């Protein structure tokens, strides 16, 4: 994101019930990567997507008997902006550390199955689903990385390592299970011809 960032601030108040509205607002804002500076007051860099979703939230809040004030800020004081950038990166670091933990678990799982010689199609499917989750997770975090979190590069490399490890595992499964299936099929053909 450029050095001269424009900001958007949403301050809102919603009725206590139904609580589902508060939860929906909170989840949407967290998915956007906002930083709460006070209860029910959040800030984010003003990107097209962030502005569009926050404006939609503002309409939803007012349509549900709530109050929402939307502010567009051209510039904060230098110290404030520096502090906000730190808060955004602190959130991304926490998310990426958790993501890296997920990558480690994924690699440990493949290592465990490899050491057991458990080369089955079921394991390929299971690990492929886990890898797809990691990819989606990383994409969501990267989308919220407005200020170049220092862990983003490491997380990309770790995800690539997961992809390479999975690819090698899948080829090992194919070499093991695929050739066994071919041998069983071939043995069955030879046996039936010998019976004739």
TrEMBL record:
InterPro entries: ChrB_N. Pfam families: ChrB_N. Residues 22-177 form the ChrB N-terminal domain. This is ChrB N-terminal domain-containing protein. It comes from Paenibacillus solanacearum.
């Amino acid at each position: 994101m450029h050095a001269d960032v424009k900001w958007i601030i949403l301050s809102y108040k919603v009725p206590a019930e139904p609580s589902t509205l508060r939860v929906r607002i909170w989840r949407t804002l967290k998915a956007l990567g906002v930083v709460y500076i006070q209860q029910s007051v959040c800030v984010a860099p003003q990107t097209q997507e962030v502005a569009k979703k926050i404006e939609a939230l503002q309409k939803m809040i007012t349509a549900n008997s709530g109050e929402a004030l939307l502010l567009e800020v051209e510039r904060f004081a230098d110290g404030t902006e520096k502090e906000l950038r730190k808060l955004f990166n602190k959130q991304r670091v926490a998310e990426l550390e958790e993501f890296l933990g997920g990558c480690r678990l994924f690699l440990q799982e493949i290592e465990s199955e490899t050491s057991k010689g458990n080369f089955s199609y079921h394991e390929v499917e299971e690990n492929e689903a886990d890898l797809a989750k990691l990819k989606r997770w990383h994409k969501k975090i990267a989308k919220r990385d407005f200020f170049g979190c220092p862990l983003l590069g490491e997380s990309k490399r770790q995800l690539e390592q997961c992809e390479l490890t999975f690819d090698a595992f899948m080829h090992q499964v194919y070499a093991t299970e695929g050739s066994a299936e071919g041998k069983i099929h071939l043995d069955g053909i030879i046996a039936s011809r010998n019976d004739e």
